[in-house]
Amino acid sequence: MATRTRRTTPGGRPVRTLVLLAALVIALFAAIGASAALGNPAGQWSPKLGLDLEGGRQIVLQPSVGKGQTVTTGQVDQAVDIIRERVNGNGVSEAQVSRLGAKNIQVSLPGNPSQETLNSLAQSSQLFFRAVINSTQDTPPTFTLPTPYSAPTTKGSTTPKSSTSPSGTATPSGTSSSSSSSSTANDVLPQAFRAATTTPTPSTSSTPAASSTSPSATASSTPQATASSSTPARNLPTPYDSSGNVTTNGLGASDTGWESRTVSNDWITSGLATKGETYSQLLTAYSCSNNDSRLGPTAAQWQQVARQIPASQPTVGCDTGRAISGAQAPAMKYLMGPSEVTGSQITDASFGQATTQQGVTTGQYEVNLTFNSKGSSEFAKVTGRLNGLQAPRNQFGIVVDGLVISAPSNTNGAITGGKAQITGNFTENSAKTLANQLKFGALPFSFNELTSSQVSPQLGSQQLRDGIIAGIIGLILVVLYSLAQYRLLGLVTIASLVTSAVITYGAVTLLGYTSNLRLTMAGVTGLIVAIGITADSFIVYFERVRDEVRSGRPLRAAVQTGWSRARRTVLVSDAVNFLAAAVLYILSEDNVKAFAFTLGLTTLIDILVVFLFTHPVLTLLSRTSFFGNGHKWSGFDPERLGARGVTYAGRGRVTIAERKAAAAAGKQA
């Protein structure tokens, strides 16, 4: 005899569904606990607050451009959009970015942002792939103290001696002069910073003299010095065009002829080189580690000019140093040709841990790049050409803002496919920052931090407290309505709202750690509005079940039949709400975006609660005598709902109305 297998539904196993929901909630708060105990930086057990509720840091950025360059309003507006995307690249951080005046940009960040985050806002993030022409190890400059002066002794010198006669004096006098000049390519200071120096070199002579009968004796020695400095004349060619840039004259990006070419005008106007100096001399003078301005231009000054060099010109740059046997190796500096691939040809950038050919992670972070069609073609040409050159000319420098992030060598032929990886001394945060900078595009120019100040909350704890009170009042009104309309069934509404609130609190807190979500007053408003949306889903479900009871079905059957019809309405309603929140989030900015985000988040949580809590709980209650038999305080009393008479409910099944009619007939008999 064949048997028919009954189809099981989530409502058929309510206990298992509730256990699943409990496991999800436990996992949510376990993740929050793990972030608070093990996170770096550590997480917290409460949601992060936005700029209007917590305060933060406000910085003003000023464009940094070379001599003769101008800043337009369009460029500043473009920079505002890019900085806003960079700030929000890690999530909804609720930062405010706006133009201040004609050229400056004001950025307000909630909380206490790291210095790395602040630095990333001002960096242009111009990416260039440049062929290496020559390289050398950076040598930190040293400060040599002058030799202490000591008076030399000369044979036959006259030394005054005392005598009983008070009428004799001896007065030695001396003069000296010397001159010296030196200028080599290996000097610590570049030619533009060299100046005449004076070094006293004494020489003595003695001239005894007798004077009057004055009873005194004196001796004096006065070293005098003169110095002069001369610079050897240079008869090097100066192939500058009308803009002050070096003309290529047919040189390729990897040609060693660049070493003997004179440097571009950017290095000269900045004072780091003199007209006539070659790129070979510039490579020698360039410093990667000097932090003392007394020893010459600092590393920051060199990099400041290096980031302004156009892509069509050669440049010099330093790498970030390499770790060898646990120690930091000295930085290398590179002379590189004109750029052949730029960051504008990148379509996507991401980060992750590097892997070997066997798929094993190395523990080091890398930035993954995807080029467009033109970038892919150019990158393949560059790597193919470098493959046939000798070191270091088989390397290409990956330069970001004048700093060589990496300078890999190519010995495997042309790299096709339009993908590349940047490796270096990356941490997870620095790799993520660089990937976001490259993904959202380079700023039209770099910025200098003009001012930085701590700002107080715009609204403060009082407004937050008022918002919470408003939410509690709204929740109480929903609870009172539910109890009045649904009697004890309203307790299911209360339990569902509490469950939704717990999950929402955990989700907002965890997103604060993983995605830097910050709760502003607009976001709190979105959470308050969500109370009504969540209650609406329960009302739709309860009313569908009561409609089935009115039609004469027993409660257990009414719950399942009403659920199959109500869930479609709930899904459609929440889908419309979520779509509206998504459109609002995409098209809006700042505070409105925060409202849209919390509204969309609570809409998803509403679906989760209705499916995994409200329906299973109501299924369990329908199996009890209090609710199943339609007690007058259960909210499912057939008489109060106006249930119909006897209806067909299938073979062997009796409806509630039929049982009540039979009971009434028995009493009359």
Structure description:
- Helix content is 40%, strand content 15%.
- It is built from 17 helices and 16 strands.
- The longest helix has 33 residues, at 555-587.
- It is elongated and about 115 Å long.
- The two termini are 44 Å apart.
- Residues 1-11, 154-247, 322-327 and 646-653 have low confidence and may be disordered.
Major β-sheet profile: 5 strands, mixed, barrel
**Overall geometry:** elongated
Mean pLDDT: 74
Can you list the strand order of the major beta sheet?
5-9-6-13-12
Give the terminus-to-terminus CA distance.
44 Å
SSE class: alpha+beta
Number of strands: 16
User: What oligomerization state is this entry in?
Assistant: single chain
Q: Compute the number of helices.
A: 17
Strand content: 15-25%
**In which range does the helix fraction lie?**
25-40%
Q: What is the radius of gyration computed over CA atoms, rounded to a whole number of angstroms? A: 40 Å
Which segments are poorly predicted (pLDDT under 50) over 5 or more consecutive residues? 1-11, 154-247, 322-327, 646-653
Secondary-structure map with pairings?
Layout: H1 14-38, E1 48-49, H2 51-54, E2 56-64, H3 73-87, E3 96-100, E4 104-110, H4 115-122, E5 127-137, H5 265-269, H6 279-285, H7 299-306, E6 315-319, E7 323-324, E8 327-328, E9 332-342, E10 346-355, E11 361-371, H8 373-386, E12 396-400, E13 403-406, E14 419-423, H9 428-440, E15 446-455, H10 461-486, H11 490-514, E16 518-519, H12 521-550, H13 555-587, H14 590-622, H15 625-628, H16 638-641, H17 656-668
Parallel strand pairs: 1-16, 6-13
Antiparallel strand pairs: 2-4, 2-15, 3-4, 5-9, 5-12, 6-9, 7-8, 10-11, 11-14, 12-13
